[in-house]
Amino acid sequence: MTARMARAALIAAMAVAGPACSDIGSPQRGGDVYEWRLVSGPDTLHYHWASASLPVRFWVEDVNGMPAHLAAAVDAWRSAFLYREFDGTIVADSSDADVIVRGTSASGSGVLLSSAPECQGATDVVIDVEAATLELPIRIYVSPRFDPTGAATQRCLALTTIHEVGHALGIFRHSTNANDIMYFDPQVTGLSERDRATAEVVYHVPPTITATRGR
After folding, report:
1. Domain that holds residue 40
2. CA quadruple 113, 76, 15, 134: dihedral sign
3. Residue closest to 78 by CA, chosen among 151, 188, 164, 166
4. What pTM was computed for the model?
Protein backbone atom coordinates (compact mmCIF):
# COMPACT_ATOMS: atom_id res chain seq x y z
CA MET A 1 0.00 0.00 0.00
CA THR A 2 1.45 3.37 -1.03
CA ALA A 3 1.55 6.46 1.14
CA ARG A 4 -1.34 7.83 -0.87
CA MET A 5 -3.64 5.01 0.18
CA ALA A 6 -5.57 5.30 3.40
CA ARG A 7 -7.72 2.56 4.79
CA ALA A 8 -10.65 3.11 7.07
CA ALA A 9 -8.98 1.57 10.11
CA LEU A 10 -6.60 4.51 10.31
CA ILE A 11 -9.40 6.66 11.71
CA ALA A 12 -10.64 4.21 14.35
CA ALA A 13 -8.88 6.13 17.13
CA MET A 14 -9.91 9.59 15.93
CA ALA A 15 -12.24 11.61 18.12
CA VAL A 16 -15.90 11.31 17.20
CA ALA A 17 -17.55 14.62 16.49
CA GLY A 18 -21.09 15.54 15.48
CA PRO A 19 -21.67 16.59 11.85
CA ALA A 20 -21.99 20.28 11.10
CA CYS A 21 -25.55 21.52 10.71
CA SER A 22 -24.75 22.80 7.22
CA ASP A 23 -24.06 19.22 6.09
CA ILE A 24 -27.48 17.89 6.94
CA GLY A 25 -30.13 18.07 4.27
CA SER A 26 -31.94 14.81 4.82
CA PRO A 27 -35.55 14.16 5.77
CA GLN A 28 -35.14 13.89 9.53
CA ARG A 29 -36.61 11.02 11.52
CA GLY A 30 -35.86 12.78 14.77
CA GLY A 31 -33.09 12.11 17.24
CA ASP A 32 -29.41 12.78 16.88
CA VAL A 33 -26.80 11.30 14.58
CA TYR A 34 -23.20 10.19 15.03
CA GLU A 35 -20.12 10.94 12.96
CA TRP A 36 -19.86 8.72 9.90
CA ARG A 37 -17.20 10.37 7.74
CA LEU A 38 -13.70 9.05 7.20
CA VAL A 39 -12.43 12.59 7.67
CA SER A 40 -14.61 15.43 8.94
CA GLY A 41 -14.07 19.17 8.75
CA PRO A 42 -13.10 21.29 5.72
CA ASP A 43 -11.44 18.37 3.91
CA THR A 44 -14.19 15.87 4.64
CA LEU A 45 -14.04 12.42 3.04
CA HIS A 46 -17.28 10.48 2.83
CA TYR A 47 -19.17 8.29 0.41
CA HIS A 48 -22.56 6.89 -0.43
CA TRP A 49 -23.80 4.80 -3.32
CA ALA A 50 -25.24 6.89 -6.13
CA SER A 51 -28.76 6.10 -7.27
CA ALA A 52 -27.34 5.04 -10.64
CA SER A 53 -25.29 2.36 -8.83
CA LEU A 54 -28.33 0.74 -7.21
CA PRO A 55 -28.97 -1.96 -6.42
CA VAL A 56 -25.55 -2.53 -4.88
CA ARG A 57 -24.41 -6.00 -5.91
CA PHE A 58 -23.35 -8.27 -3.04
CA TRP A 59 -21.70 -11.66 -3.41
CA VAL A 60 -21.62 -13.86 -0.32
CA GLU A 61 -19.76 -17.05 0.53
CA ASP A 62 -22.17 -19.87 1.30
CA VAL A 63 -20.91 -20.80 4.76
CA ASN A 64 -22.22 -20.51 8.33
CA GLY A 65 -25.63 -19.32 7.19
CA MET A 66 -24.10 -16.16 5.71
CA PRO A 67 -26.44 -15.86 2.68
CA ALA A 68 -29.44 -15.58 4.99
CA HIS A 69 -27.63 -13.19 7.32
CA LEU A 70 -26.61 -10.97 4.40
CA ALA A 71 -30.12 -10.92 2.95
CA ALA A 72 -31.49 -9.86 6.35
CA ALA A 73 -28.78 -7.19 6.68
CA VAL A 74 -29.55 -5.68 3.29
CA ASP A 75 -33.27 -5.66 4.15
CA ALA A 76 -32.53 -3.97 7.48
CA TRP A 77 -30.61 -1.12 5.86
CA ARG A 78 -33.06 -0.82 2.97
CA SER A 79 -35.83 -0.25 5.51
CA ALA A 80 -33.84 2.56 7.14
CA PHE A 81 -34.53 4.90 4.24
CA LEU A 82 -37.70 6.82 3.59
CA TYR A 83 -37.28 7.15 -0.18
CA ARG A 84 -35.40 4.01 -1.26
CA GLU A 85 -32.07 5.83 -1.30
CA PHE A 86 -30.37 2.45 -0.87
CA ASP A 87 -31.05 -0.97 -2.31
CA GLY A 88 -28.99 -4.13 -2.66
CA THR A 89 -29.15 -7.50 -4.33
CA ILE A 90 -27.21 -10.74 -3.98
CA VAL A 91 -25.45 -11.91 -7.15
CA ALA A 92 -24.08 -15.33 -8.06
CA ASP A 93 -20.80 -14.16 -9.62
CA SER A 94 -18.20 -12.57 -7.34
CA SER A 95 -16.52 -10.89 -10.32
CA ASP A 96 -19.71 -8.88 -10.83
CA ALA A 97 -19.98 -7.75 -7.21
CA ASP A 98 -19.59 -4.32 -5.65
CA VAL A 99 -19.24 -5.87 -2.19
CA ILE A 100 -17.76 -9.32 -1.46
CA VAL A 101 -18.78 -10.97 1.82
CA ARG A 102 -16.77 -13.90 3.18
CA GLY A 103 -17.26 -16.09 6.23
CA THR A 104 -13.58 -15.97 7.15
CA SER A 105 -11.31 -13.71 9.18
CA ALA A 106 -9.71 -10.68 7.57
CA SER A 107 -5.98 -10.92 7.02
CA GLY A 108 -3.51 -8.08 7.32
CA SER A 109 -4.16 -4.57 8.55
CA GLY A 110 -6.19 -1.67 7.34
CA VAL A 111 -9.75 -2.72 8.08
CA LEU A 112 -12.56 -1.46 10.25
CA LEU A 113 -12.94 -4.13 12.91
CA SER A 114 -15.80 -5.21 15.12
CA SER A 115 -15.50 -7.89 17.75
CA ALA A 116 -17.68 -9.94 20.07
CA PRO A 117 -17.04 -13.07 22.15
CA GLU A 118 -18.78 -15.34 19.63
CA CYS A 119 -17.67 -13.85 16.30
CA GLN A 120 -15.75 -11.08 14.62
CA GLY A 121 -16.24 -8.85 11.62
CA ALA A 122 -14.20 -6.56 9.41
CA THR A 123 -14.78 -4.31 6.42
CA ASP A 124 -11.93 -3.47 4.07
CA VAL A 125 -12.53 -0.05 2.51
CA VAL A 126 -9.56 1.15 0.45
CA ILE A 127 -9.52 4.90 -0.19
CA ASP A 128 -6.97 6.93 -2.12
CA VAL A 129 -7.07 10.21 -0.20
CA GLU A 130 -5.19 12.21 -2.82
CA ALA A 131 -7.40 11.06 -5.70
CA ALA A 132 -10.56 10.93 -3.50
CA THR A 133 -11.47 7.50 -4.82
CA LEU A 134 -12.82 4.35 -3.17
CA GLU A 135 -11.68 1.08 -4.68
CA LEU A 136 -14.31 -1.56 -5.48
CA PRO A 137 -15.13 -4.18 -4.50
CA ILE A 138 -15.46 -3.46 -0.81
CA ARG A 139 -14.68 -6.61 1.17
CA ILE A 140 -16.53 -7.77 4.26
CA TYR A 141 -15.42 -10.59 6.55
CA VAL A 142 -17.66 -12.16 9.22
CA SER A 143 -16.38 -15.26 10.98
CA PRO A 144 -17.32 -17.37 14.03
CA ARG A 145 -14.96 -17.86 16.96
CA PHE A 146 -16.69 -21.07 18.04
CA ASP A 147 -19.14 -23.62 16.68
CA PRO A 148 -21.01 -21.69 13.95
CA THR A 149 -24.19 -23.73 14.51
CA GLY A 150 -24.65 -22.52 18.09
CA ALA A 151 -27.52 -20.13 18.76
CA ALA A 152 -25.31 -17.46 20.33
CA THR A 153 -22.83 -17.63 17.45
CA GLN A 154 -25.57 -17.39 14.83
CA ARG A 155 -27.03 -14.36 16.61
CA CYS A 156 -23.58 -12.78 16.62
CA LEU A 157 -23.05 -13.50 12.93
CA ALA A 158 -26.42 -11.95 12.11
CA LEU A 159 -25.92 -8.67 13.98
CA THR A 160 -22.27 -8.39 12.92
CA THR A 161 -23.29 -8.75 9.27
CA ILE A 162 -25.73 -5.84 9.67
CA HIS A 163 -22.93 -3.81 11.25
CA GLU A 164 -20.44 -4.54 8.46
CA VAL A 165 -22.96 -3.79 5.72
CA GLY A 166 -23.43 -0.42 7.43
CA HIS A 167 -19.74 0.30 6.82
CA ALA A 168 -20.13 -0.72 3.18
CA LEU A 169 -23.02 1.74 2.84
CA GLY A 170 -20.75 4.61 3.82
CA ILE A 171 -20.87 4.74 7.62
CA PHE A 172 -17.10 4.67 8.04
CA ARG A 173 -17.02 5.43 11.77
CA HIS A 174 -18.22 3.53 14.82
CA SER A 175 -20.90 4.87 17.11
CA THR A 176 -19.91 5.34 20.74
CA ASN A 177 -23.37 4.23 21.92
CA ALA A 178 -23.91 0.51 22.63
CA ASN A 179 -27.58 0.91 21.66
CA ASP A 180 -26.57 1.44 18.00
CA ILE A 181 -25.81 -1.39 15.58
CA MET A 182 -22.75 0.62 14.47
CA TYR A 183 -21.18 0.47 17.95
CA PHE A 184 -17.67 -1.01 17.64
CA ASP A 185 -18.81 -4.15 19.50
CA PRO A 186 -22.35 -4.56 18.14
CA GLN A 187 -24.75 -5.88 20.75
CA VAL A 188 -28.24 -5.00 19.55
CA THR A 189 -30.02 -7.08 16.93
CA GLY A 190 -31.26 -4.26 14.72
CA LEU A 191 -30.93 -0.62 13.76
CA SER A 192 -31.58 2.10 16.32
CA GLU A 193 -33.20 5.42 15.53
CA ARG A 194 -29.71 6.95 15.60
CA ASP A 195 -28.54 4.40 13.03
CA ARG A 196 -31.51 5.23 10.81
CA ALA A 197 -31.10 8.98 11.20
CA THR A 198 -27.37 8.75 10.48
CA ALA A 199 -27.98 6.66 7.35
CA GLU A 200 -30.46 9.27 6.10
CA VAL A 201 -27.87 12.01 6.57
CA VAL A 202 -25.18 9.96 4.78
CA TYR A 203 -27.42 9.65 1.73
CA HIS A 204 -28.37 13.33 1.60
CA VAL A 205 -24.89 14.81 1.74
CA PRO A 206 -23.05 14.92 -1.63
CA PRO A 207 -20.18 12.41 -1.51
CA THR A 208 -16.62 13.64 -1.82
CA ILE A 209 -15.29 10.21 -2.89
CA THR A 210 -15.83 8.50 -6.24
CA ALA A 211 -15.97 4.69 -6.53
CA THR A 212 -13.60 3.05 -9.02
CA ARG A 213 -13.21 -0.58 -9.98
CA GLY A 214 -10.00 -2.04 -8.57
CA ARG A 215 -9.15 -5.52 -7.35
Report:
1. 5-213
2. positive
3. 166
4. 0.85
